[in-house]
Amino acid sequence: MLKVYSIKYLTKMTSPSWKQVGGYNRTGNYARFSFLTNETDSDRYSTSATSVVYTLGGTTPLPTLVTFNTLPGLAYTPGQKIIIAYDASNYFTAYVNRYSENILTAIPVAGGVTGSGTYSTWQINLDGIVGPLGPTGPRGATGAAGPQGIQGAIGAIGPQGATGPRGATGAAGATGVQGATGPQGATGPQGATGPQGATGPQGATGPQGATGVQGATGPQGATGPQGATGPQGATGAQGATGPQGATGTQGATGTQGATGPQGIQGVAGPVGPTGSLGTLANIASHSNNILSYNTSTNTLGYTTGTSISLFTGATARDTAITSPFLGQFCFLTDEAQLQFYKSGIWNNYPLGGSGPTLSTLVVTGPSNSITQTYVDAANNIVPTPTATGFTIYRFDGLSAVSPLSFTIKANKLINISYLLVAGGGGGGTGNSSSRGGGGGAGGVVKGTNTLQNSTTYNISIGGYRAWDGYDSSFYAGSGLITAVGGGVGATPGSSAGNGGSGGGSTSGNTPGNGIGEQGKSGGRGDNGVGGGGGGYISAGSSDGRGGLGVTNDTFFGNSFIIQYGAGGIGGNSTSNMIPPTGFGTGGPGGRFNESGRAGTGGILGIKFPSYS
Fold this sequence. Notes:
The chain contains one helix and 28 strands. By secondary structure, the protein is mainly β. It has four domains: 5-36, no CATH class; 47-126, Thrombin, subunit H (Beta Barrel); 289-348, no CATH class; 356-612, no CATH class.
């Protein structure tokens, strides 16, 4: 007998390869069927993409933020590591910055470029793909069936079919043969199905079947995608800054090159008349003659009245001679060096000798964002460069990214110290029930590097805005150095941004993460108070306090103290929305129905010996 069932549900069983259907037949009997399916569930990452032309390799670096037109509906989230390839020989790696609809932006990984050339079409995927599914294990025993649900009401009986024609009456006597039964009438429409009975409790899971014999090992699949990064552990408190080490001793003077061959002696000139016998005073007596260098004739001369002045070093010289004149001489006793004044600086005599020369930067870009300072060996600010001191350039971020470049002019390869800070993230906007999160501090990168004489280096200093802070970057001998902008503070209903330091979240939501050693995570908002933005030294807190930054840095001289890398405060009931101060500071989050403020711009400091 044929049994017809109405399917009431479709469920996925515990094994990824089995599903079930179940239902009732017309007589109220219930049945359940299992079947095997090839269905798999996964997010999508692989996509083709187009962009403006980007150059791989060579002297032109990738931008600090690259943008692509991709397919919609992808599963990318901030912080994932991806590979962006033109082909198998030309590609680079990056971290996802943001994905929305079909627009993907990413931060290239320093040193992550392979190959060379200029391209505008790409294939993008996670840094690794999913391997093939392994063989399915044997099916375990089926658990006991749950109790049968209540039977639905029986449908109404259809109308009776028409009666067949009556057979002819037979002859009197014997009964005639009974006529054939007329055809059965058409079946009436089925009645509406009764409501489904309540699902019985699920039976206990049967014991797992014995493990089948392992099949032969298949070829190894491609590397699967990298798992999501686990939460960052809490950062320990930063130790106190150690005292600056003493200045190292000056290296030994190199050996003098071999003397060139002597030129042919010129014809002797006529003997001049004998002059009168003169007198030469003691030039170290500070009382008689001043010896000077004639820059037009390249000869020495002297005038009556004073002498060559002796000083222990450049600091004593600059204190005593406040207005030197062209060609004036002095002698530095500690260095045993004769010097003359020309082109605004003191030069070693003879000109072009082996002594140190002044090192400078030739800067191209907005002059209102550049400051030059001189310090002595003890880091005290002085008006002019000293022989053992340092020259410092400061580049400030304006309202947007400030593109600049500089060329080093020095006598040799120069060792530098640098301080690089990105722009701070803006604070989130509050609504009627929750206040906005504080913006994350701009990322901070410190270190040492080298600069080559007569080489041009590009700079990009992040300014301020009310969203994710702008990145800051510059090129040095080791390549591109980048500080990532701070993450934006969360607005109710949106996520906090990741960045150099993460933005604070709204009440109960996830805060943004910091990137590496550049900054810490934002705080998770609580009880309607926006979480504080992450700082360079510590993470933001749930009560709205921004993470700590540096408050007493003397990179630009002992008397010029700067602050940078502080997280923005989260929106709260007492905040007066005070504008943030310092460099790369996150903006404060908005109070109820108030907008957050923008973070502050970044900074780059470059410090190198004044003379080389």
